[in-house]
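Why NB-ARC domain-containing protein? Reviewers of the renewal asked for a concrete example.
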Amino acid sequence: MTLWRGIHRGQTAPPLIRSSTNEPFGLDVIFNGDNPIADIVAVHGLNGHREGTWTAEASQANWLRDLLPADIPNARILSYGYNSRTHNAENLSLQSIYEHAITLVQDLCTYRRNTKTENRPIIFLAHSLGGILVKNALIHSKLSKSSHHSIKRCTSGVAFFGTPHVGTSAANFASIVLSIGSIFTRTNSTVVRQLRENSESLHTQLQQFNPISCDFQIVVFYETYKTNIKFGKRIVIVPLHSASLPGNQGGLCIPLRKSHTELVRFSCPADPDYLVVSDQLKILVSDASRVLETNSVMSTATSLTAMSGSLTSLTVDCKQPVMKLPFSLPLQPNYFVGRTAELNTLHDSLFGTPKTKGSSEEQSRVVVVHGLGGAGKTQLSVAYAQSHRHDVDAVLWLDGSSENNTLLSFRSIAQRFLDAARQANGGEESINPLSSRLPIGEYLSATGQISTDEKTLPKISKIVMDFLRSENESFTWLMIMDNVDDLPRYPVASFLPQSARGKIIITTRRTEAIQFGQPLEIGQIEEESGIQILLNASSLRTKAPTDPENAKTIAISLGLLPLALEQAGAYISRTQMQLGKYPHLLERHRRELLSSPNTLGYNQVSVFATWELSFKQLVEEDNVAGNLLTLLAFFHHSSFWEGLLLAPFESNESSETSEPTVGSPEGYKWLHELSSSEFKLTNTLGKIFSVSLAKRNAPSGNIHLHPLVHAWGRERLTPVSRKGKLVEAVVAIGSALEWAYRPNRTSSKEVREFVSRVVPNADHCIGLVTQEGSKEMFSTILSDRQSAKALFYIGVLFENVSKLRQAEDIFAAIVAAYENDPSILSPLMAVNAQRRLAHVVNLFSRYKEGETLLLQAIPTLISLVGKAHPDTLAAQLELGNVHHRCFRYAEAEGLLREVIENDTDASTGGKMGRMGREATSILGLVYKHKGLHQEALALLKRVLDQASEENQDGAAHLLTLKYRHTLILQELGHWNLAMQAYEEAFDGFKATLGFNHPLTLRTANALGRIYCFLGKYAESRDILDLVWKGQSALGFSKENETAQLRTLFNIGVLNREEGRPNEAFEMLDRALRAEQALYGARAHSTLRCQVELGILQTVRGDLEEAARNLEEALSNQLAHYPDSPMEHAHTRTALAEAFTQLKSPSQADETLEPALRFVRATLEPDNPVRLKVELAHATSLLAGGRGGEAFAETKKLVPLLESTFGLKHPISVRGRVLFKDSREKINDIEGDGVV
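Here is what the prediction returned.
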């Protein structure tokens, strides 16, 4: 087998030096080190072995010997062995764990004294129950007055691997210990029996380790894989909650992807877990000397005789500094990254030049770190304290969650000072003389512990604060008051000692706390740091190719909130889940994942539980504020503003239909009362802001909820409560829209802006309706007249802002509900929903559905509001447009004229309203189809002039009129002008309605067709592809809807022009069959498809079939559309070209003659329609042997073709070829002597 011998990261290990021993017990020098600065001492666990424990079975690599020296050459590495076998009776040791610990201390002291290294820092590595032995050794060393004391004094770090630390009870601890014993199937162990029998005393004994754990750096490595135990069972022996060390202040908890027995076995230097461990050991070694220096006290403060009886007299004289307290902070997971700007701001506020004029230099500098729970306020403070701990003599930690906890924290600070004073004197002076020199002596127990009696705690706190306020200028301190969230019941100011040497950080979710100091708000973390937190917490040290992108997805979905990222990482690590699977799980089980404390391995509240605490405080202060916060979760997370609730109650106007105002007091009393008073609403929002569950964004003024808070606000509710709040949200939004859509309001710019701000809130709210189940929620909403009316106005909003699918769903639900039970809903609202539903389905080109709805709605509207009412006119206009789109021009003209008549004001010289102008523009298109092009242009010019003057009906109305005007220009052959107009209209519709609105797509379709006419095939392809995708995204059903049929048709023509005949035939044939099925064989659009398919057949050489199809199409056009000469001209041109290729020039001339006569009489010489007819005529002349006439015609045509279509357009090329052929024909005739 290959052994890894010091080959790691390009380094070579120094020569190996080993001690000689026949037994695997005692100390063994694995590696002497190169100028070592620290000793690394490894201690195995139960049934372990001095070498075997650390050796990988597959490679036989002992990483202490074969890997670590290459990475840490400046450390001496030792391994300690002891008899811990549980199945070998011959070698079974009768020593207790404590006796093993004393032996370890004794051996280590002797060896270090003999090698003159007794002051070198020590770093212990302890596996499993070996960690208990190490803790016992350090406890013994701490209490010892002999040379054994040096071991604890020199210990700078401990790395625990799967060690079960003290749990919630002795019984719990015992069960974990016995689980370790159960790994070994041949257990008849005295040691295990002793552990079982003495687990309670051992549990109590190990409590003594917690007070000294802050004196050195601690890293905890824990297993994430299960271990095989007896009877085939597999369990995680020491899970994270047990491996975490209680009282480990500032220690790390790092997962390794190994089982309990393999936790300290690494096969090669590339092992990802080895890289993690070695990196942490490098840090422990490099920090070792500094840790010991920090823990030491100045020689001038080592004598307790310098004390004068009070805590403030811990100095030799007024010029000597008070001894430093050893650095100690509560346990925090070490996932903190980033926040550079916040750390710099914090430091500048604490140590920089005061920003407030007149700030007293005798006061403590106070910074209030505030923000949402889970944003990382505590971790920021800890990180700052760790990086600046050498700038002060003491870092003090206060639990600010309650007054009692703060008093207990001051008691702990006092205890720390006492312990530091005793340690400074080597522990040799008794407690009594020490306590007699301190003013807290009367509160000390016989063992030197300060009382926790609630009556004495305020007195002890005062002693500590008096000391911190003392005049001694040499002692500096940093105090962190964490979780100051219960301000109404918490006298914060009384716990802020003022001193020129004091620096105070307050962390809080309460914004009112900023009164106590300089505010520093903490929000979401930067994206890169959020990704790193997730990766660190999930222990993904070896990155898969997709991990960075998956981590980014998760980080963003969690709103870059540090605590949520840590929870996600802990869960991923614990379940060994792939990163890519977590987003789906989060989407389906967000509440469970972010509520459960089991996703965190340390003593930390989950992110959802954190917000529940804030919500509880809020409700206790103001129940209405709790109601409002919950309601905000049903609006958009960053688009709500007060005006949404205030607008409906601005005046007492009644609605047009005299319905009760949406949101009136009868059904939604609390909401009505809150919204009817701007002052009360503002104050209520202020209370929500005060607990940091929401904030106001500048400069928009909108209310912002973190996306996770937004989700939590809903997911914390029961299904019934959630649905009830959702109905309230619908009512609130609908009432605002009812106010905005009242007559004479919608033309106001202010109201239009108001409506645009409502959109994201309505969109989110109806999205939640869909999540809850549209059918069920619509049924609930429509069972009450107020909420039903609110839903109707949301439908109107969606119709107006191009959210057509949502509008269709809402209007269809209202119509169905009314048909099911007419007693609940207003008849006028129901019929208007029916009318608007027809408009929406017509936009999707589902004209048969729209026509059916309108034929039902119009009589009802006439009976309810009369013929001249805007609602009736809107329905008639819509039906007239359907008739036009379905080629029923007579029916269309009749309805459109009726709308124009009823929406024209004779007293103003015939000015029309919006619907009158719409009707006139559609009538112009009817005229176009009848061949009345000039009359059509006159109608469109009239309405465009009026609409431009009015300038109040919105951009979409004006753009629609321009689009229709352009259709007529295109028909008349003004293609370049039409192209420019289409481009302007397309850009306008995109800006106004969005790209995926049917009107935008319809305009883009026309633009793609005109590009094709002009030979701009690449541009045509690009835009038609976009149209096809956009229509598909809207749910158009291809052959069943007219709009997508038009796209299919246009792409077919483009394919033909680009030389793709097979693709062209497939699309044009599909379009033709669909048009025949929808509108019949004689419909205008059907005949157009037939003509273009005939042209394709000519191109493919199917001349006889082409001629038959084109003759049939022309016959139907002449019979059913006799007033459409432009269409006739196009078909005649195509048929003539087929006849020409069939060697029938006489038939070609006969077919083309009416078209030639028409275009020469009505169109300019450079008109593209005329040019096509003229070119077909010249082709026929040449084919008929009239080369001279063909030459004369093409000589005039070619310059016009090139200037109109461009040099490269196929029709220009064709013209030049015809000119050349006709000239050659003339030359041939002259050569034969025939002129």
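The radius of gyration is 43 Å. This is the kind of structural detail the renewal will allow us to pursue systematically.
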